[in-house]
């Protein structure tokens, strides 16, 4: 028996259809359907049309009606394609020290930084990590996020990385959002590893990668290319092995210094993320490639540094995604809608470009071709906002939240119900 649901009437449905994956987008390219209904079949969009028309067409069909009172607009469920929401502890002390004038390096030397979170994450049990992920995922859901990527990278040994990736899988099994896991064992050389960077990376690729494949714990491999993390020479054999084994590649690139985006292009990565330090050379390189550029405004806001040159990336013809980077160190806020709206203001992005960056372009950065747009055959993942004009959403810079969120046609969050 098919599950049929009709939701409406909706003042506007912003479908995100007909917009290319790369390059600038003007607001008049947005396709809006007014006075619309969304008809879902078994979790997928079956059709979007005038509500009255759908109602009359379906009058003799056994369909569940979700009838809305007042004005609502509908946007595709947001996709947050870069987070680190699996971690133990807090780095509130780092934040205070940074704002008091210490550098990232000084803080790391005084016991803060990524290594601090590694120690706190290693102390946590898998169950405790799952609880942390779910607490943070709930915050993302309230923002309209229906698919979320989550990285490991605070375990930094075969066993501890496995604990993190199992926690992410467990969270996925217990929560209606889709969690897409990524192995970030190449986050930094763990301080307790007795050997070189290449020895550490060989151990991970030899011992961890086969388990990830066998137990379906991750299909994506990430690496932090930066001074104090890994360089191109160290990472080349590691990424070569990952590609040979069929993993998709994504890179933490050009955050403080350049180099990472060239590695991303060389390995035909699905995305290069951060790019705050990218110059016109890296922007051109990315724009000419198939690598999706991902801006992480939450890291700029958390560290107090410049934003990714998003306008230049789009104008060069690149694909621009916006993700939260939610993590305990550089991006503790974790509010994608606020961050995307602020990036739009600071970088002069059209509302269409911002929305593309958190919907279908973000889905493409995770190689998910089945979501991020509202059209026939796509996941019925969407959020409703209590307004008649979708421009109100970004205008309110994140303070205006969805009133309802649907995942595969099911209401999974209702602001008015506890
Ligand atoms: O994306 N840049 C490297 N990794 C994270 C920060 C991790 C941390 O500080 O805990 C990032 O910003
Ligand atoms: Fe990150």
Can you tag this structure with a few keywords?
418 residues, Urease, subunit C, domain 1, 2 domains, eight-stranded mixed β-sheet, eight-stranded parallel β-sheet, 16 strands, globular, binds fe (iii) ion
Q: What would you say this structure looks like, in words?
A:
- The protein is of the alpha/beta class.
- It has 2 domains: 4-76 and 372-414, Urease, subunit C, domain 1, CATH 2.30.40.10; 79-364, TIM Barrel (Alpha-Beta Barrel), CATH 3.20.20.
- Helix content is 37%, strand content 22%.
- It has 16 helices and 16 strands.
- The protein has helices spanning 51-57, 92-99, 104-109, 113-123, 126-141, 158-174, 197-214, 232-244, 260-266, 280-288, 297-303, 310-315, 336-347, 351-357, 360-365, 391-395, and strands at 4-14, 32-41, 44-50, 64-67, 73-76, 78-80, 145-151, 178-186, 220-224, 248-253, 271-274, 292-295, 320-322, 382-385, 404-407, 410-414.
- The strands form 2 sheets. Strands 1, 2, 3, 4, 5, 14, 15 and 16 form an 8-stranded mixed beta sheet that branches. The chain has an 8-stranded parallel beta sheet with strand order 6-7-8-9-10-11-12-13.
- The longest helix is centred in the middle third of the chain and has 18 residues, at 197-214.
- It is globular.
- The mean pLDDT is 97.
- The structure holds N-(iminomethyl)-L-glutamic acid and fe (iii) ion (FE).
- N-(iminomethyl)-L-glutamic acid binds next to helix 4.
- The site of N-(iminomethyl)-L-glutamic acid has 13 residues, from helix 4.
User: What best-fitting shape do the alpha-carbon axes yield?
Assistant: globular
Question: Can you list the ligands bound to this structure?
Answer: N-(iminomethyl)-L-glutamic acid, fe (iii) ion
What multimeric state do the chains show?
single chain
Question: Uncertain segments of ≥5 residues (pLDDT<50)?
Answer: none
